[in-house]
Write a structure and sequence with these properties.
alpha/beta; Nucleotidyltransferase, domain 5; Hypothetical protein af1432; 6-stranded mixed sheet; 5-stranded mixed sheet; 22 helices; 18% strand; elongated; hydrolase activity; GppA/Ppx_hydrolase; Ppx/GppA family phosphatase; Ppx_GppA_N; Ppx_GppA_C
Length: 512
């Protein structure tokens, strides 16, 4: 009997109201199964007196009740609704919450700036393998900045300006004059000056960006550069790229921006102020690069809700790989664990030939565990499906280059086929990467052959190398005849790749 759980996370933001429905499967894996977004622009609707009029609250009620029905359709076990800057900073905040709760029967949590920063940080740290740096979360009505070391928060602050209320303050039309842009930069610098820890942090740290502003920047860059991996998460940008986007977009009218490929129409008027905040923070903190995080506040709320005892994962890459593997129950688990053990043994045994480091070993680890997930789509050509799934499933803890590289290793069947796939990703991979994928892919392929019957006959494997061959000494629980035949079929290609052949010596332990 299935024990799947679903959680509905509602984020009442200053620019939009979002719903994300997460599913935790009976194998303890999780994924997003539905999401919805409606524009709110709450920061725009708050009057000069700081009050959100009651007539504006009804549209929020309608959206929340719509989201509530979606959650009911999914049979969510828990709905958690949070409100951020617009409602937090409104003078009639308590009246707004009472009104929403009365007409939706939902409990609304109003997050403090510190809580918003903490939850955004949690969602980010569970999705990026970064030890120290800054996190900036630019919302519609606030900007949170967090400094972290060893994956722990050192300091954080929330400023009461974001992309929506800054646009409202400096431009009714969304088009900024040069002096308006300079005033926005001065506003941000003055706020940053009030927090000495921001200026005194070490230079050269990464600036991890959350929120719609930096996601929009990432999408624009992906379209402009024809990036072969359609993934914004963990994309890295330099400061000059954001400066170029500001120059290009500020020169356009709002109507012209709405026609820009990759830019959402409902963000056309607020994108430039958001990018100005982002660039000013980047320059002030003397960071080395931007890193885009596709996970943030809502993900942090999910982790805290679903795993309250230990919401933060210990190893981002390992957690992500195991989660992805568990989402594909058609994969024979005992088999891929055996392939993983054998592939890593082969990598270690050939160390004197390849001289590769621990990071390269991790590529073999990832590829050998995931090489079979394509069978979820179809057994036939499953390696092609594996490549697609790995390249499009977001393996946290790997760069874009590393994701494609691991997918190539996992899907390797022949040098020509691997090279053909590599040609489609030359913006991310070098010729040396292609050669590396072929060599490491051949190790996963050989490890797969050593469990061709999927019955794990090999209990222990020792490796040695002479001038002519990789010698495998196999201690087996039962006859590995199927495996030995498969190894024999691979030996010719292995010799072409590694320059040595393969010899096997098996010992079958008596079961009597």
């Amino acid at each position: 009997m299935k024990s799947d759980r679903k959680f509905g996370i509602i984020d009442i933001g200053s620019n939009s109201i979002r719903l994300v429905i997460y599913e935790e499967t009976d194998r303890k894996a999780h994924r997003v199964v539905d999401e919805s977004k409606e524009a709110a622009r709450l920061s725009e609707k708050i009057g000069s007196d700081g009050i959100l009029p009651e007539q504006e609250m009804q549209s929020i009620v309608d959206t929340l009740n719509h989201f509530k029905k979606l959650c009911q359709s999914h049979r969510t076990s828990k709905i958690r609704a949070v409100a951020t800057a617009a409602i937090r900073n409104a003078k009639n905040s308590s009246e707004i919450v009472s009104y929403l709760e009365r007409y939706t029967n939902l409990h609304i949590e109003v997050l403090s700036g510190e809580e918003e920063a903490r939850l955004g940080f949690l969602g980010t740290m569970n999705a990026l393998d970064v030890r120290e740096g800054f996190v900036v979360d630019i919302g519609g009505g606030s900007t949170e900045i967090t400094l972290f070391r060893d994956r722990r928060i050192v300091n954080s602050v929330s400023f009461p300006f974001g992309s929506v209320n800054t646009t409202k303050r400096f431009s009714d039309s969304g088009h900024l004059q040069q002096q308006d842009m300079e005033r926005i930069q001065s506003l941000v610098k003055a706020a940053l000056d009030c927090e000495p820890w921001i200026r005194t942090a070490a230079a050269g740290l990464p600036l991890i960006g959350l929120g719609g502003t930096i996601r929009s920047a990432a999408k624009l860059v992906l379209r402009q550069t024809k990036h072969s991996l359609p993934l914004a998460h963990n994309l890295e940008l330099d400061g000059s790229t954001v400066e170029r986007l500001i120059a290009e977009l500020s020169a356009l009218s709002v109507e012209q921006r709405k026609k820009v490929d990759g830019l959402s129409k409902d963000r056309a008027d607020i994108i430039v102020p958001g990018l100005l905040i982002l660039q000013t923070v980047f320059a002030y903190t003397r960071c080395s690069r931007f890193v885009i995080s596709g996970s943030g506040l809502r993900d942090g709320i999910f982790y805290e809700t679903a795993f309250p005892k230990q919401p933060m994962v210990d190893n981002v890459l390992e957690y992500s790989v195991n989660n992805l593997l568990s989402l594909h129950p058609a994969v024979p688990l005992t088999h891929v664990i055996q392939v993983n053990k054998l592939a890593l043994g082969l990598f270690d045994g050939l160390q004197e030939l390849h001289g590769l480091d621990e990071r390269n070993r991790s590529y073999v680890h990832v590829a050998s565990l995931l090489y079979r997930i394509g069978i979820t789509v179809n057994y036939y050509n499953f390696e092609k499906h594996t490549f697609y799934l790995m390249a499009h499933s977001r393996i946290d803890g790997l760069s874009h280059r590393e994701i494609v590289l691991c997918a190539l290793i996992a899907s390797h069947r022949s040098r020509n086929r691997t090279r053909y796939t590599y040609q489609q990703h030359r913006d991310l991979l070098s010729e040396a990467d292609c050669q590396l994928a072929i060599r490491l892919g051949s190790l996963v392929q050989l490890a797969t052959a050593l469990d061709r019957s999927e019955s794990q006959p090999i209990g222990r494997m020792q490796t040695s190398i002479d001038k002519k061959a990789l010698q495998l000494s196999l201690v087996c629980s039962h006859s590995p005849s199927v495996e030995l035949r498969q190894v024999e079929m691979l030996e010719r290609d292995f010799r072409k790749i590694w320059g040595i052949g393969i010899t096997c010596e098996e010992t079958v332990l008596s079961t009597t």
